[in-house]
C-alpha cells in the first residue's frame, strides 16, 4: 500500500473532512491507485530542472495604498450561516 | 506549584551579569520573532481600510472575506515599508521573493490559508545594534518578510459560541525574525525597545505592544555554558507587553534550568505565557503539530524589486536612532544616557533639537544686548531680555524631566507622532535660557513652567507679569541676609555651636525676606560666608 | 426563422438591421430551453425574467445606434463557477447551494457592459472537477446527440446549451480540458485561451495556475467574438497579462497557406477509437490541402502530463477549497458539537466524492515529507512539458491533435474507476500545464452519430493563429452546420 489507513485518517483531519470507516477504506484504495500511477514521474531525472513557479511572465502588479472599499457588512454577510449583529458566529472550540 | 530558586533568581536579576550568575552553568539562547502591523491606509491585498475601531466586519470586502473566486492584489506601500526596514537594519533586499500559502483552519482565517512568505523572504541578514550594561552588541536578523494578519475571535457573552470580526484580516504585517543571538533578558528587552524605536522612526508601525500592533513571540533554549550546539527550543506566545516578555523569559529559562538540572529533557513545544499566574504552560489543546503545507501562492507572481526603487527608498530614510544618538553625544556634548532618552522617540528628539536651536544669542552670551552673529540667527527668535542661549544639557534636563512627565501624564505618547505639544519647543528653550542667564532661579522656573502649561503664554511674559525676576543683586541680598542674622541671634549662636541643620531655616528666612526671589546660589554663598564655618 | 439556431455573428447582423429584436431572440432561446431542459439539464439557475429585461435594454441601446459591440443583445449562458451578482452561483456543489454572490466575476461584468443577455447558469462538475459533468451535486447533464451519454466535463452544461440552441454562446472554464472536451463531445467550438489572457477574478478557483475561462460557440467566428469580449488585463487579477487584445475576428479569413502544422506523435495514443483517429487525420489532410505544411513532431513528456496535473491541480485545489468552512457563507451543517466538528461535518456533507478525493490527494501531495516527492516533482515535470512545446513551436505555428481518444461515453461508464476517468484528459491536460491556447472544433462524427473533436494548439498569446487555422478548416467542411435532434432516444 502506498498509503495506509492511518495516513488517510491524518489527511482527512488536516483537510477537516469527516469520513466514515467505509469512506476511509474507499479513499485509501483510490489514493493508493492514484499514487501508484503518479510514481511514473520518478522515471524522469529532474535534478537539474527548475520547478514551474508561474507560466506567465509579468512585472509585479501592484495596487496603490488607497482605501477603495466602502463598509457594507450587511450585504457581504447576508449569506452568513450565523451572525450576531455584524459579527460572524461560530461554535466554540471544545477542548 | 512553587517556582524554583533558579526561576526566582533569574526573575529578580537586575543586570545581565546577575542573570548569568543566577543561571549557573547554563546559558540562555534566545531568538525573538516580532510581528509589526504596518501603518498603510489599506490592507495588503485589497482596498479595505486598516483603520482601528470600525464596527465588526465593516472593513471587509469579498477579497479579504475569502469569497469564492476572489484574488489578491499587492499594496505597493507594504513592500516599500518592508524595504525601509530592511535597509535600516542592513539586510540584503532580495531581488526576487515569493509569496507562499500557509494552510490551516481557523475562524479568523477566511481563506483557510494565510498569504505569507516562506522559502524566499524579501530580506535576509542584517541586524539590530543594542547596548546593554554599557556593552554594544549586534543581534542578527535571520529574515524579514511580509504577510497578512488574521481577524479576531472573541468569546460571545453566552459562552457557547465565538464571534468573528474580520476587520483585521488582511492588515499587513512584517515578520522580523532574529537570530538566536540574544543571551539575556536584558538583551531581549534592549532588542525589542531598539526595534520598536526603529519602526517608529521609520513611521511604518506605531509599536504598540498592548494594542497588538507590535507582537513578540520568543524562542528560548538553554545549554551548558561554552557549548556550541543549541538546546531544544521552546516557543513562548501570548506576550502582550515588554514586561511580560521579560518575566516570561525569566520564568522559562528558570524552568528549563530546573528540568535539565534535575536530569530531565526539554520537550520542543509551544507554551503560552499566563500573565496572571506568571508562568509558561503547555498549550491545553493537544493539537497535532501543525502541518502548514507551504507552497508558492499561484495567485501572486514572484515579487521582483529593482535596484532603482531600493535606491529611491534608501534616499528617503530618516536619520536612524543609533546615528542620531551618536550625533547628540558628539554635537551637543550630552551624556549617553540623555541621548538615549531623547532619541527613544523621533518626535522627542526633534523637539529637543528645536528647543536647543531656539534662541539667537551666541553660545556663552549671558545677557541680551549682544548682537546675534551669523546667518543662523535669522531663523531663530530673539532672546528675551536677560536670557541666554540655553545649553544643550540644560534643555535635555528639562525635556527629560518636565516635558516628558507631562507627555506621559496626558498620554500624548499614545500617538505615533506627537503634534500637540503642551509647550512649543522654542518656549521651553527660552525658559531654560532665562535660568541659565540667572534671570530666574530654577525653582521659580518651575512655577513659570506650570503657568506656561496652564495659560500657553510665553515664559518672558509670565516672568514680566508676575515680577519673577530673581534678585541677584549682591548688595540687596547681603542686606537681607544681614537682616535675618540680626533678627535671630540665638539661632546664629546655635548654628555656630554645631547645629548645622539650622542652615535651612536661615535660607528660608532670607527667601521670605526677598519674597522668594532671592538667587538661591547667592543666598547660599552669602549665608555660608556670614555664618562662618563650624 | 429559427432564431435560436443563429450564430452570434448572424444574430448580431440581424439585430443591427432590425430584422429581429433581442427580446425576440432571447424569448426564442428561453422557449427552446423550456422544451429541452427536461431531457438534457444544461442549466442550474435560470434567469428568464432578468434576461428579458436585459434584452429590452439591449434593444434600446441598439436603437440608439453607434454601438459596434457584437455581443449586444446576444443570449449567453455562464458556467456556474462564474460569479453573477444576485444570481445563485453554486459551482455545482451543495456547499454553495445557497450562495448568491454580491459581486460579478470580471468576465460577467464585461459581458454585461457589452450588452450581452445572461440567460442561465450552466451545470458543471462540482468545483470543475471532472470530465463528464457527472459530479455535479444537482443534476446530470445529458449529451444532446445521445441523452444516454455524457456531454464531457467539467463545462458540460455550457457545451450542451450551445449545442441545443438554449443560448447562442456560453462561457466555461478549462483547467485540464474542461472546455475543449465537452466541446468535442457535443460538436461545438470551445477554446481555452493562453493562461493570463482572460481574468480569473470571480471565477471559483479550482487550480489557480491552470484555470482559464473560455468561450463555447457554434462556430469559430463566434468564438473569436466571444473571446474578444472577455479577454484583457484585469487589475483585480494579478496573473492577468497587460498586453493588448487584438480583434480576434479580423484575421480569420487569412487562410493557412504556409502555416506550419505539427502533429505530435504521442497524442495518437494506443487504443484510440479508430473513427476518431481517422477523422483527425482526415482533418489534417484537409488543412494540407488548404496550403498548410504538416510535419510530425515529438512531445516526449506527454504521457507524464496526467500524473503531474493530478498532483499540481489537486494540491492547489486542496488549498483553494479550504475557505468552504461554513463560517462566512454557504452551507453549515447543523449540530451541537464544537468548531472542529462543525468544520468536518460541513465539508463532509457539502462536498461530493470526487471533490473529497482530490482534496485528500492534494493535501497529501503538499504534506510534510511528501512535498518534494509529489508537488515539487510534478512542477519540475511541468517544466519539461513546457520545454517540449517550446521546442515544437520553434518549428511549427500550431499543433494539431485529437481532443480525446474516444467520443462521448455512456453515463456511468467511467464513474467506478477514478483513474480511468482521469485518463480521458490525456490530450488536453498538457496544454494547461504549459499555459498555451487550445481550441476544439468538430471534425466528424462516428458511426453512432457522436461528434469528434479536433484540437488546435498555439504558442503563447497566438490565439489569432489558432483561430485562423480553425476557421479555415471549419469553412472547408460542413460539420459545424449539423444540429443534434433532441428527443431521439
Report the C-alpha radius of gyration of chain C, rounded: 21 Å
Report the mean per-residue pLDDT of chain B as an integer: 88
* Largest beta-sheet details of chain C: 11 strands, mixed
Please list the strands of the largest sheet of chain C in the order they lie side by side: 1-3-2-4-6-5-10-11-9-7-8
Just name the CATH architecture of the domain at 3-254 in chain C: Alpha-Beta Complex
Shape of chain C: globular
Mean pLDDT of chain C: 96
State which percent range the strand residues of chain C make up.
5-15%
Features of this protein?
heterotrimer; A: 95 residues; alpha+beta; Histone, subunit A; two-stranded antiparallel sheet; 3 helices; 34% helix; C: 489 residues; alpha/beta; Amidase signature (AS) enzymes; eleven-stranded mixed beta sheet; 15 helices; 11 strands; 38% helix; 13% strand; globular
Describe it.
- The complex is a heterotrimer of chains A (95), B (534) and C (489).
- With 95 residues, chain A is of the alpha+beta class.
- Chain A has helices spanning 5-14, 21-38, 73-76, and strands at 62-63, 83-84, 87-91.
- Chain A has a two-stranded antiparallel sheet.
- In chain A, strand 2 and strand 3 form a beta hairpin.
- Chain B has 534 residues and is α+β, with helices and mostly antiparallel strands.
- Chain B has 3 domains: 5-287, no CATH class; 321-466, no CATH class; 474-531, Arc Repressor Mutant, subunit A (Orthogonal Bundle).
- Chain B contains 18 helices and 18 strands.
- Chain B has helices at 5-12, 16-23, 76-88, 185-201, 242-261, 307-315, 321-332, 336-343, 346-356, 376-379, 392-409, 425-436, 442-455, 459-466, 474-487, 489-496, 503-513, 520-531, and strands at 26-37, 74-75, 92-93, 96-97, 99-103, 113-117, 123-124, 127-132, 135-148, 152-155, 161-165, 172-178, 214-224, 234-239, 270-274, 279-282, 295-296, 303-304.
- The N and C termini of chain B lie far apart (61 Å).
- By secondary structure, chain C is of the alpha/beta class.
- Among the domains of chain C are: 3-254, Amidase signature (AS) enzymes (Alpha-Beta Complex), CATH 3.90.1300; 303-380, no CATH class.
- Chain C has helices spanning 8-17, 22-40, 48-64, 106-114, 156-163, 180-186, 220-230, 274-289, 305-320, 339-350, 353-366, 372-392, 418-422, 429-434, 463-475, and strands spanning 43-46, 75-79, 117-122, 169-174, 189-192, 212-217, 260-264, 293-297, 398-402, 438-445, 451-458.
- Chain C has an 11-stranded mixed β-sheet with strand order 1-3-2-4-6-5-10-11-9-7-8, sandwiched between helices.
- In chain C, helix 9 packs across helix 12.
- Chain C is globular and about 65 Å long.
- The mean pLDDT of chain C is 96.
- Classes of the chains: A alpha+beta (95), B alpha+beta (534), C alpha/beta (489).
- The interface between A and C is large, with 52 and 67 residues.
Amino acid at each position: 500500500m502506498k498509503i495506509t489507513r492511518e495516513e488517510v485518517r491524518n489527511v482527512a483531519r488536516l483537510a477537516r473532512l469527516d469520513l466514515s470507516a467505509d469512506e476511509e477504506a474507499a479513499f485509501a484504495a483510490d489514493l493508493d491507485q492514484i499514487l501508484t500511477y503518479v510514481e511514473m514521474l520518478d522515471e524522469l531525472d529532474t535534478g537539474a530542472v527548475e520547478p514551474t513557479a508561474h507560466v506567465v511572465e509579468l512585472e509585479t502588479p501592484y495596487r496603490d495604498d488607497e482605501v477603495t472599499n466602502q463598509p457594507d457588512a450587511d450585504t457581504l454577510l447576508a449569506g452568513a450561516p450565523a451572525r450576531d449583529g455584524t459579527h460572524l458566529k461560530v461554535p466554540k472550540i471544545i477542548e | 506549584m512553587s517556582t524554583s530558586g533558579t526561576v526566582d533568581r533569574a526573575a529578580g536579576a537586575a543586570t545581565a551579569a546577575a542573570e548569568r550568575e543566577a543561571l549557573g552553568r547554563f546559558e540562555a539562547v534566545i531568538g525573538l520573532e516580532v510581528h509589526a502591523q504596518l501603518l498603510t491606509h489599506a490592507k495588503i491585498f485589497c482596498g479595505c481600510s486598516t483603520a482601528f475601531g470600525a464596527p465588526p466586519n465593516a472593513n471587509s470586502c469579498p477579497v479579504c472575506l475569502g469569497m469564492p473566486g476572489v484574488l489578491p492584489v499587492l499594496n505597493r506601500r507594504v513592500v516599500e515599508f518592508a524595504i525601509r526596514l530592511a535597509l535600516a537594519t542592513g539586510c540584503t533586499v532580495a531581488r526576487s521573493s515569493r509569496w507562499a500559502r500557509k494552510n490551516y483552519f481557523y475562524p479568523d482565517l477566511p481563506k483557510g490559508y494565510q498569504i505569507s512568505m516562506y522559502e524566499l523572504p524579501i530580506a535576509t541578514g542584517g541586524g539590530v545594534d543594542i547596548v546593554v550594561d554599557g556593552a554594544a552588541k549586534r543581534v542578527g536578523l535571520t529574515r524579514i518578510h511580509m504577510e497578512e494578519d488574521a481577524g479576531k475571535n472573541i468569546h460571545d457573552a453566552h459562552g457557547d459560541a465565538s464571534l468573528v470580526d474580520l476587520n483585521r484580516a488582511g492588515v499587513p504585517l512584517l515578520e522580523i525574525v532574529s537570530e538566536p543571538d540574544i543571551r539575556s533578558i536584558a538583551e531581549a528587552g534592549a532588542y525589542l525597545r531598539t526595534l520598536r524605536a526603529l519602526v517608529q522612526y521609520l513611521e511604518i508601525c506605531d509599536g504598540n505592544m498592548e494594542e497588538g500592533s507590535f507582537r513578540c513571540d520568543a524562542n528560548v533554549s538553554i545549554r551548558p555554558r561554552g557549548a556550541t550546539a543549541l538546546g531544544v527550543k521552546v516557543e513562548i506566545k501570548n506576550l502582550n507587553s515588554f514586561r511580560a516578555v521579560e518575566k516570561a523569559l525569566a520564568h522559562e529559562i528558570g524552568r528549563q534550568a530546573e528540568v535539565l538540572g534535575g536530569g530531565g529533557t526539554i520537550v520542543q513545544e509551544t507554551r503560552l505565557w499566563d500573565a496572571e499566574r506568571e508562568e509558561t504552560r503547555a498549550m491545553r489543546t493537544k493539537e497535532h503539530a501543525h502541518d502548514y503545507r507551504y507552497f508558492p501562492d499561484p495567485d501572486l507572481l514572484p515579487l521582483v524589486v529593482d535596484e532603482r526603487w531600493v535606491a529611491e527608498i534608501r534616499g528617503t530614510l530618516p536619520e536612524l536612532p543609533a546615528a542620531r544618538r551618536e550625533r547628540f553625544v558628539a554635537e551637543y556634548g550630552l551624556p549617553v544616557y540623555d541621548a538615549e532618552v531623547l532619541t527613544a522617540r523621533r518626535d522627542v528628539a526633534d523637539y529637543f533639537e528645536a528647543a536647543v536651536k531656539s534662541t539667537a544669542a551666541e553660545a556663552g552670551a549671558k545677557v541680551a544686548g549682544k548682537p546675534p552673529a551669523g546667518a543662523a540667527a535669522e531663523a531663530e527668535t530673539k532672546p528675551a531680555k536677560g536670557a541666554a542661549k540655553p545649553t544643550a544639557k540644560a534643555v535635555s534636563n528639562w525635556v527629560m524631566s518636565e516635558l516628558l512627565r507631562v507627555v506621559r501624564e496626558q498620554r500624548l505618547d499614545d500617538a505615533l507622532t506627537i503634534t500637540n505639544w503642551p509647550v512649543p519647543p522654542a518656549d521651553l528653550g527660552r525658559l531654560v535660557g532665562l535660568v541659565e542667564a540667572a534671570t530666574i532661579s530654577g525653582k521659580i522656573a518651575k512655577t513659570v513652567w506650570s503657568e506656561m502649561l496652564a495659560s500657553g503664554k510665553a515664559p518672558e511674559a509670565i516672568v514680566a507679569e508676575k515680577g519673577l525676576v530673581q534678585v541677584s543683586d549682591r548688595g540687596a541680598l547681603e542686606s537681607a541676609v544681614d537682616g535675618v542674622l540680626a533678627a535671630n541671634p540665638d539661632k546664629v549662636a546655635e548654628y555656630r555651636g554645631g547645629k548645622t541643620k539650622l542652615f535651612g531655616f536661615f535660607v528660608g528666612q532670607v527667601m521670605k525676606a526677598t519674597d522668594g526671589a532671592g538667587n538661591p546660589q547667592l543666598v547660599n554663598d552669602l549665608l555660608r560666608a556670614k555664618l562662618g564655618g563650624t | 426563422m429559427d432564431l435560436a439556431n443563429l450564430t452570434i455573428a448572424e444574430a448580431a447582423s440581424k439585430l443591427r438591421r432590425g430584422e429581429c429584436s433581442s427580446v425576440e431572440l432571447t424569448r426564442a432561446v428561453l422557449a427552446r430551453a423550456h422544451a429541452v431542459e427536461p431531457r438534457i439539464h444544461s442549466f442550474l439557475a435560470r434567469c428568464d425574467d432578468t434576461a428579458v429585461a436585459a434584452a429590452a435594454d439591449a434593444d434600446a441601446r441598439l436603437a440608439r445606434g453607434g454601438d459596434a459591440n457584437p455581443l449586444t443583445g446576444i443570449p449567453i449562458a455562464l458556467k456556474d463557477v462564474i460569479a453573477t451578482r444576485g444570481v445563485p452561483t453554486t459551482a455545482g456543489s451543495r456547499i454553495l447551494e445557497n450562495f448568491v454572490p454580491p459581486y460579478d466575476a470580471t468576465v460577467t461584468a464585461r459581458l454585461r457592459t457589452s450588452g450581452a443577455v445572461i440567460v442561465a447558469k450552466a451545470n458543471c462538475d462540482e468545483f470543475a472537477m471532472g470530465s463528464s459533468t457527472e459530479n455535479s451535486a444537482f443534476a446530470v447533464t445529458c449529451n444532446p446527440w445521445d441523452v444516454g451519454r455524457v456531454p464531457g466535463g467539467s463545462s458540460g452544461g455550457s457545451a450542451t446549451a450551445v449545442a441545443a440552441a438554449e443560448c447562442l454562446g456560453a462561457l466555461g472554464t478549462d483547467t485540464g480540458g474542461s472546455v475543449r472536451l465537452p466541446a468535442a463531445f457535443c460538436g461545438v467550438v470551445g477554446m481555452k485561451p493562453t493562461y493570463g489572457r482572460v481574468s480569473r477574478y470571480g471565477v471559483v478557483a479550482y487550480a489557480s495556475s491552470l484555470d482559464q475561462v473560455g468561450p463555447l460557440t457554434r462556430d469559430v467566428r463566434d468564438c473569436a467574438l466571444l473571446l474578444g469580449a472577455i479577454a484583457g488585463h484585469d487589475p483585480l487579477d494579478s496573473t492577468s497579462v497587460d498586453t493588448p487584445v487584438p480583434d480576434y475576428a479580423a484575421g480569420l479569413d487569412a487562410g493557412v497557406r504556409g502555416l506550419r502544422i505539427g502533429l505530435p506523435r504521442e497524442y495518437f495514443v494506443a487504443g484510440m477509437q479508430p473513427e476518431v483517429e481517422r477523422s483527425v487525420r482526415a482533418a489534417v489532410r484537409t488543412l494540407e490541402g488548404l496550403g498548410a505544411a504538416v510535419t510530425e513532431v515529438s512531445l516526449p513528456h506527454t504521457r507524464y502530463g496526467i500524473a503531474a496535473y493530478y498532483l499540481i491541480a489537486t494540491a492547489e485545489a486542496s488549498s483553494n477549497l479550504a475557505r468552504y468552512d461554513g463560517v462566512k457563507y454557504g452551507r453549515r451543517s447543523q449540530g451541537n458539537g464544537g468548531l472542529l466538528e462543525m468544520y468536518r461535518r460541513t465539508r463532509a456533507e457539502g462536498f461530493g466524492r470526487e471533490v473529497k478525493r482530490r482534496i485528500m490527494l492534494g493535501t497529501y501531495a503538499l504534506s510534510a515529507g511528501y512535498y518534494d516527492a509529489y508537488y515539487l516533482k510534478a512542477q519540475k515535470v511541468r517544466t519539461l512539458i513546457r520545454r517540449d512545446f517550446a521546442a515544437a513551436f520553434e518549428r511549427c505555428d500550431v499543433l494539431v491533435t485529437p481532443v480525446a481518444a474516444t467520443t462521448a461515453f455512456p453515463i456511468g461508464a467511467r464513474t467506478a474507476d477514478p483513474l480511468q476517468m482521469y485518463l480521458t484528459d490525456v490530450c488536453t491536460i498538457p496544454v494547461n500545464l504549459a499555459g498555451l491556447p487550445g481550441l476544439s472544433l468538430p471534425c466528424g462524427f462516428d458511426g453512432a452519430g457522436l461528434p469528434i473533436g479536433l484540437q488546435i494548439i498555439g504558442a503563447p498569446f497566438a490565439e489569432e493563429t489558432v483561430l485562423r487555422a480553425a476557421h479555415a478548416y471549419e469553412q472547408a467542411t460542413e460539420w459545424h452546420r449539423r444540429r443534434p435532434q433532441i428527443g431521439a432516444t
